[in-house]
Amino acid sequence: MARHQSKEQKETVERVMHEYKHGELRIRGNGPKVKNSKQAIAIALHEAGASSQENPKKNRETLRKTKTKERRGKTAKARTGAKKTARHRARGGDGKTRAELYEEAKRRHIPGRSRMSKEQLEHALAR
């Protein structure tokens, strides 16, 4: 590990280790997930341009490429942040769940509400 890291290098190492901790870090971007902490550290140092295995010129170039990728949002952290959870994908038009629609139907005293599907509840409440 480099003795003196720049602010940019520290931020990159921090981001990569965060991805590892949350199970988002992958080998070569789209390969299998990294399961070994030592491998995650090696990837972090390489991406930060702080690797002792590379010459200083190559390290600077690697850091520049990594920072460009971060600005474009092409890191694992940016990719997974954009995905919606299953709960949010399942929500229909105005974003209410069946339970929320049922409570509204109960409040309005709509008959047969317990046997209605989400779509039927939406239709009944729209009247």
UniProtKB/TrEMBL annotation:
Residues 65-90 have a biased composition (Basic residues). Residues 1-27, 55-64, 91-106, 116-127 have a biased composition (Basic and acidic residues). InterPro entries: DUF6496. Residues 1-127 are annotated as: Disordered. Pfam families: DUF6496 (PF20106). It comes from the Bacteria. This is Plasmid stabilization protein. It comes from Microvirga makkahensis.
